[in-house]
Amino acid sequence: MKTIALYSIKGGVGKTAAAVNLSYLSALTSPPCLICDLDPQGASSYYFRITASKKFSSDKFLKGNKKIHSNIKATDFENLDLLPSDFSYRNLDIELSEEKKPQKKLKKNLESLSDDYSHVFFDCPPNLTLLSESVFSASDIILVPMIPTTLSIRTYNQLIDFFTANNLDRKRIRAFFTMVEKRKAMHRDIIAEYGDAPGFLRQTIPYNSEVEKMGVYRAPLTAVKPNSVASKAYKGLFEELMAGKAL
Amino acid sequence: MPDLPETTVIKIDPDSAAISVPHILENTPYSLSFPERQKTLRHYFDTFDSKAFSSGLTVQSEGRRISIRESSSNRILASDTVPSNSACFMAANFSPGTFSTLISHISRLRAFCRLASFQVESVKWRVLDCEEKTIGTVIDESISCIESLKKGPILHIITLNPLRGYSQEMGTLRKALQGEMAESDSLDAAGIFRELMRHTGREPGDYSSKITLKLDPGAQVHESALRLLRFTTEVMRHNEAGIRKSIDTEFLHDYRVSLRRARSILAQLKGVFDPETANRFRKELKELAGRTGALRDLDVYLLQQHDFPASLPPILRGGLTPFFAGITSARKKIHRKLDRYLSSEEYRKLMSEWEAFLSITQLPDPEKAPAASIATGKSARTSIRKSWKRVIRNGRLVSRETKDEELHELRIDCKKLRYLMEFFASLFPSDRIGPALKQLKQLQENLGEFVDCAVQLEFLHEHLDAASRNGCDPGLAASIGGLMTRIYLTQEQARSTFHASFRTFDSDRTAALFEELLTERMYK
What average pLDDT does this structure show over A223-244? Predict the structure, then answer.
C-alpha cells in the first residue's frame, strides 16, 4: 500500500480536486484505491455524494482499524472507496494531542488497510498542526499543490523548513503548480524559475472552469470529462507520479 | 476488498403475476436510475468432477466475457475473454493474469466444459439516495433454458447488491421487496446455480472417482466386493466418453485407476469368487489395462511439456520441441486406436459380460469360493493385515544397494495395500484409517518417484535409440541427454532416501496404528 497526502498550508489551492481526480485515476490503473477525507469541511466526501454515518466521528477515527473499516463506503466508481470526514474532525487536533504518540497515530490506524488497497490518498485540511505531522509520518508522498505566486513559494519554503527542523525526510515532498494561468506574467515567471527544481513535478494543472464545475457534477472530472484540458493534465500528473518510481 | 456486504437473492415463482420493482420501491426514500435492459446467453462451465463448484466458485460466460465468481455472493473475482474453443477449455488457454491464476488453482489438469446454457433477460437499476449517490444495484432476471425457450422462464430472481457501507440502507429495500412478495424465497447464489443445474438434469458434484461406498461390516464379503466392483465399473463407464473425445487426460487416468482397483479386488480377495471366472476376468481386464497404458505414458510426457524444458539450461530447451512434437503425433495415432477399440464390438462384449457377472448376487459354490460368505469386516481386517505384513516383509528384504527390481516390486505391494485400505475405508473410523493411510502415502511417494524416473529413463533411452537410427539431430540428443541426467539425479535421490522413508513406515508407531486399526472389534 502506498500513501499519498494532498497537503498544503494554504487553502483553496486545489487539494481536494487533485485528491479526487488522482484517486479515480489510481482506481482505474492500479486498483483498489481509498480516499481518506481528513478535512472537516468534507469537500471530497461531498464530491462523491457521501456523508458519514451518524455514528461516525473523530473519536471513532482515532480508535482506528475496526471503526475505520466499518465506516468506509464505496463510491459510485469501481475499486474506489472513501472514508468520509465528519464535522467533528475539527477537533481532531485537540484529541490527537491527548494520544500517546500523536505523530504515529494515523499510520498505526491505517495498518490493517494495507492488504486491502494499493493506494490511499489523504485529503488534508489546510494548516500545519499535529494532524499534519501525523499525516507526514503516515505518507509515502506529500503532494503539495501550489498556485504559482510568491506567497505560495514562501509557504512551500516554510514546509521545507519544518521538515528539516523536525528531522523528516523532505525527499518525500513533491510539489506541482495548479490553477496556472498562462496569461499572467507572474505565473509564467515562477514556473520558469521552479518548474524544474528538484521535488517539483513537471506537469502543471491549468486554471479551468471545468474543475470548479466538479461541485455541480459531484464526480471526478477525470471520470465525467476525461478529455477536458484539466483531466488530461491530471492524467499527466498521475503518470509522472507513477513513473517517478515513488509509487 | 474485504467485508463486502451480503448479496440477497430473492426467488420468485416464475408463473406468478408480473412484479414491478419500481412500483414496490415507491414507498421508500430511494429512487431508481434509468433501467438497463439486457438479453444475453449465459453458459456455465466446470470440470467433469465439479472442481469449481466444490471450491465454492462458479465459472460462467456472457457474450465474450468469462468470469469466475464466488458462489455464495456471486461476486466476480476475475474475468477474461472467452477462449477460442468456447465449449471446452483448459486453464493453460488463458494468458497470465488473475483469471489464469484462479482457474489454474481450480484445476490445471482438467478441462472446463460447458455444463448448460441459459437465456437471461435482465433489468438492472442503480438505487440512489436523496443525494443521487448509488447505494447498490437491483437486478431482476428471468432465466430460461436454451433448449426449451418456449416453455418460458424457469427461474425468476431479484438480486440486491449493496455497495460497501450501504447495507443498512439496502436492507430497507430488501424488506420492502420481500414484504410485497408473499411467495418469495431467499437463496444464496450457490443455491440458484444448483437449481439451474437441476433444471438441466445435473447435480453438481455427482461424479468422483474416489470410493464413496458405505459398506456394511456384517454383510457377506461377496456382496460387498460386488458393490465395489460395480462402483469401479461405473466410474470406468462415466469416463469412456471423455477418453474418446480426448477432453483431458484425467478421464483416462480415472478410468485406469478404477480398472486397477477392480483387478486388485479380484486378485486380493481370494476365495470370494469362483476362481475360474475371476481368473478369466483378471486376464481380460489386464489386457484392457495394457491397451490403455501406452496412451497414458504419452499423456504423462505431454503434461511435462512446460516443466521439462524449464529444468534444462536455456541452450538445450529448443531441442525438446521436436521431441514433444513427435509425442503429440504419436499420441494422436494411439488415441485413434484406443477410440476405435472402445467403440468396438469386442469391448462392448467384454464389458457386458463383466457387468452381467457383477449383477449375479447369488453366492458362488462354497467349494470353489469358500471365503464368499465371510463377514466383510473380518475379511477386510485379514486381507489388510496380510497385505500390510507383506509390505513390511518385502521392504525389510530390500538390500543396501536398493536394486531397481526390489523397489519396483515393493511399490506394487504398497499399491495393493493402499487399494485394500481404500476399499474398506468406510468400515473404519476415519480418524483411525486416516493416519495409517498417511504413513503409507509417504512411503508410496518415495517409491512412486523412483519408479516414475525409471520408466521415464527407459522411455527416453528408447526414444534416443530410435532417433539415432534415423540420423538423430544433435540438438535433440543433447536435450534428451540433459533431461536423462536430471531424471537420473532425482531417481538416485529417491533411492538414497528409500531406507529412511521405509524406516518411518516400519516403525513401532506405524505398527501400533495398524494393530489398533486391525485388531479392534467391529466398529459401529
Answer: 93
Angstroms from A116 CA to nearest CA on chain B:
5
Chosen from B1, B33, B76, B130 to mutate, greatest number of chain A CBs within 10 A = B1
Of A146, A144, A118, A120, the C-alpha closest to A132 is: A144
- Which superfamily does CATH assign the domain made up of B375-524 to? CHAD domain (1.40.20.10)
C-alpha distance from residue A56 to each of A83, A113, A162, B143, B504 (Å)? 10, 18, 32, 42, 60
Q: Which of A49, A70, A81 sits opposite B132 (nearest CB)?
A: A49
A247 close to B (CB below 8 A): no
**CATH class for the region spanning B8-199:** mainly beta
Contacts of B24 (CB under 8 A, 6+ apart): B176, B177, B180
Whole-prediction pTM:
0.76
In this predicted structure, the answer to whether residue A108 has a pLDDT above a threshold of 90 is no
> Which of A32, A51, A70 faces B1 most closely, judged by CB atoms?
A32
CATH of the domain at A143: 3.40.50.300
Q: How many domains does chain A have?
A: 1
Place of cell 525409471: B454
Give CA–CA dist A139/A127, Å, rounded: 16
- CB proximity B165 to A under 8 Å: yes
pLDDT in tens, B94-132: 999 999 999 999 999 999 999 989 999 999 999 999 999
Q: How many CB pairs under 8 A join A and B?
A: 35
> Does the distance separating the beta carbons of B165 and A74 come in below 8 Å?
yes
Yes or no, beta carbons of B165 and A32 under 8 Å apart: no
Average model confidence (pLDDT) across chain B? 89
B8-199 matches B211-374 in fold: no
Other beta carbons within 10 Å of B403: 12
Which of A51, A53, A72 comes nearest B164 by C-beta? A72
The complex's ipTM works out to 0.84
What are the residue boundaries of the structural domains of chain B, listed by start?
Answer: 8-199, 211-374, 375-524
CATH superfamily assigned to domain B211-374: CHAD domain (1.40.20.10)
